[in-house]
From TrEMBL:
<keyword id="KW-1133">Transmembrane helix</keyword>
<dbReference type="InterPro" id="IPR001851">
    <property type="entry name" value="ABC_transp_permease"/>
</dbReference>
<keyword id="KW-1003">Cell membrane</keyword>
<keyword id="KW-0472">Membrane</keyword>
<feature type="transmembrane region" description="Helical">
    <location>
        <begin position="38"/>
        <end position="56"/>
    </location>
</feature>
<feature type="transmembrane region" description="Helical">
    <location>
        <begin position="250"/>
        <end position="270"/>
    </location>
</feature>
<feature type="transmembrane region" description="Helical">
    <location>
        <begin position="308"/>
        <end position="330"/>
    </location>
</feature>
<feature type="transmembrane region" description="Helical">
    <location>
        <begin position="133"/>
        <end position="156"/>
    </location>
</feature>
<dbReference type="GO" id="GO:0005886">
    <property type="term" value="C:plasma membrane"/>
</dbReference>
<dbReference type="Pfam" id="PF02653">
    <property type="entry name" value="BPD_transp_2"/>
</dbReference>
<keyword id="KW-0812">Transmembrane</keyword>
<feature type="transmembrane region" description="Helical">
    <location>
        <begin position="163"/>
        <end position="180"/>
    </location>
</feature>
<protein>
    <submittedName>
        <fullName>ABC transporter permease</fullName>
    </submittedName>
</protein>
<feature type="transmembrane region" description="Helical">
    <location>
        <begin position="200"/>
        <end position="222"/>
    </location>
</feature>
<dbReference type="GO" id="GO:0022857">
    <property type="term" value="F:transmembrane transporter activity"/>
</dbReference>
<feature type="transmembrane region" description="Helical">
    <location>
        <begin position="99"/>
        <end position="121"/>
    </location>
</feature>
<feature type="transmembrane region" description="Helical">
    <location>
        <begin position="76"/>
        <end position="92"/>
    </location>
</feature>
Amino acid sequence: MNSPLNDIAVPRAAAAASGPTSPSTASMFVRHPLFRPLAALVLLLLVDLLLVPGFFHLEIKDGHLYGSLIDIANRAAPLVLAALGMTLVIATRGIDISVGAVVAISGTVAAMLIGGTMVMQNGVPEYVANTPMVWALCAAMGAALLCGAWNGLLVAGLGLQPIVATLILMVAGRGLAQLFTDGQIVTVYYKPFFFLGSGYLFGLPFSLYIVGAVFLVTALLMRKTALGLFIQAVGINPVAARLAGLKTAVLIFFVYVFCSACAGLAGLMISANIKSADANNAGLLLELDAILAVTLGGTSLAGGKFSLAGSVIGALIIQTLTYTIYSLGLPPEVNMVVKSVVVFLVCLSQSAEFKNMWRAFRAKNKGGAA
């Protein structure tokens, strides 16, 4: 016996099978979380294509690949590392504004330990490290991990607000780095150390391999284990996650340690690139760029769902924007103004109240037009 429900359901099923009413591939692509950051990056690249001569030109010199695109990716590497760490922190409803200070500390520790002393070997002057480089790098990363443990203890253990807890290290950490160096720039003369920031492997900057390895390990941990799901649960509702049996304090402690570890790597990369440690300027405002990169990539500051790939794209957007402004001969201050505008637009896009106002405005216009 046919019912009216069958008369409605069958045509709908047939229409869905036929395809016109089903969402097209284009619409699915537009709705993808990475569509907007990718579109912004492509738009910037198109601007560079039109206004910056030879922007996409690549050439090989001494077996190394050179060009504007390679330069952007290389200079964005420290920011990508900081953004990856910041992504997990923000996913738990936290924030870490001490990233720049951790960069200064790790770079300072490595530079002070490695240094460089000139010796004569077979009549040729060469610089040797004051401390074996492996131990110096381990000490620098150890200092970064201690910074992360301090932040994690304050946030997860003592329950301090993340922005307040990390503000302590943001101020004290850079001060400690300046005390270590007596406010001076520490120069490194040991060439093998430079490879971390300015070396090449198989024609590409070595920093890109470091970033790729960190991204791959992080993505595997987040997708192939339950860790990513646990972090999302803590960000969505920490109380419910704790009642469900998750060790929320341990998870929060972990993300702050991981964030500082990424910042420590970024500090080594920056110090190796400039062949010195500048405790006053190294990593300055890097935490703000990392937060902006994460939000540009689609991760909400309210916590919960996050996108590692989106954070990488966000970091590339920021570095491409900086490169574009400098290439066009605009004052460096313009970069800060543009970033502030971008932050404002990102905040609007994540505001529930603004979205409701926008929907009401569109509905009102459609009603008036009808």
